Amino acid sequence: MLVIDQDKLMTVSENSGEIRHTADFEHFIQEQDLAVWLCRKADPQSKGKVENAVKFVKTSFFSARTFDSVQDIHEPLSTWLTRRANGKIHQATGRIPARVLELEERKTLRTIRSSIYDQHVGIPRDTRKANSKGMIAFAGNSFSVPQKYAERTVAVQSGPVRLRIYDMDSGSELCSHPLPEGKGHNIVSEGHRVKRGSKPREVYDKLADRVELPGWKAFLDANLERYQRYWKDQSVHLARIAETASELDILDSAISFCESAECYGAGDLKSAYEHLCESRDTGFPSLLEQARPMISIRTKASSEVAKRGIRYYISALSLVLGVPA
């Protein structure tokens, strides 16, 4: 049982027993498997003399002592608590608090569970690589990550009731999922996937507004025309490109190259963008630019198959069979 006052860091509201805790505190309660007793607002009778304990320490300990740093407080305060605060007979109960704790209370207490909120423990995080659909495997179940992290490695940290997923570079939390009972579950958060029920035009409109480049919409038009059957899959990859491609000038060059090569797949655009980024970082000339003239010749070349007359095939057949044509 955890008894708390109505602090906004822990409790959002309390209306006739209908209590709403903050999201982080609710996760902490579930993680530690705690029952909460929330004191009534502006009702000191429900709190006993708990708040007076602070006043007692301030007037009896700190008022007669000075310290140079916080570290200097710990040892003398611990000694004072053992000797004075917890070692003398309590006026209301007629008992010594330290003795009551050891004889009666301690056997009802349990150790605090390891917590992902404990910054001092430094619980190690495992790593998982998300698949192309933005799912990671953990403890026999699958959990979703934001779509931009598909096919990328993320850090995971498991508590008793929740799995938390973090960015590998920044360490920031991406999302969290409740841990289900058993195995074989797919846990997907809303917004982590492109809605499969969306019509192609709706998806197109959303994608078109995500990149402010003159060639972006033309590329989408060509992609939609060529890959209409696979548009839903293509749109997922295009959305990821739109979200992760931070260098718009390089993305514009990649779009221009794909148009000149008549390569309108999302994978083509991704490869071109990554190659141009790498060429800029290394200082080497771009192989794509060197290949542009050859691609131009290839795309303009005729792809018509030569046609032969029927007499050609009759002559060839007569030679094989050994009969006159």
Sheet bearing the most strands, described? 4 strands, antiparallel
Secondary structure: helix percent:
40-55%
Q: Nearest-angstrom radius of gyration?
A: 34 Å
Average pLDDT over all residues: 80
Structural category is alpha+beta
* Strand order in the sheet with the most strands: 5-8-9-10
Uncertain spans: 296-303
Number of domains: 3
- DSSP summary: helix tally: 11
Beginning-to-end CA distance, first to last residue:
103 Å
- Sketch the topology as an H/E string, one letter per element: EEEHEHHHEEEEEEEHHHHHHH
Q: Which percent band covers the strand fraction?
A: 5-15%
- Per DSSP E runs of 2 or more residues, the count of β-strands stands at 11
Shape: elongated
InterPro entries: Integrase_cat-core (IPR001584), IstA-like_C (IPR054353), RNaseH-like_sf (IPR012337)
Protein name: Integrase catalytic domain-containing protein
Pfam family, one: Mu-transpos_C_2
Domain Integrase catalytic: 1-105
Write the layout of secondary structure elements.
Elements: E1 2-4, E2 11-15, E3 18-21, H1 23-32, E4 36-38, H2 50-60, H3 74-85, H4 97-105, E5 126-129, E6 135-138, E7 141-144, E8 153-158, E9 162-166, E10 173-178, E11 186-187, H5 200-208, H6 216-226, H7 231-244, H8 248-261, H9 266-282, H10 287-300, H11 310-321
Parallel strand pairs: 1-4, 7-11
Antiparallel strand pairs: 2-3, 5-8, 6-7, 8-9, 9-10
Helix pairs in contact: 5-6, 5-7, 7-9, 8-9
Word description of this protein:
- A four-stranded antiparallel beta sheet has the order 5-8-9-10, with no helix packed on it.
- Residues 296-303 have low confidence and may be disordered.
- The protein has eleven helices and eleven strands.
- The longest helix has 17 residues, at 266-282.
- It has three domains: 2-108, no CATH class; 126-187, OB fold (Dihydrolipoamide Acetyltransferase, E2P) (Beta Barrel), CATH 2.40.50; 200-300, no CATH class.
- It has helices at residues 23-32, 50-60, 74-85, 97-105, 200-208, 216-226, 231-244, 248-261, 266-282, 287-300, 310-321; strands at residues 2-4, 11-15, 18-21, 36-38, 126-129, 135-138, 141-144, 153-158, 162-166, 173-178, 186-187.
- The protein is of the alpha+beta class and 325 residues long.
- Helix 7 (231-244) runs parallel beside helix 9 (266-282).
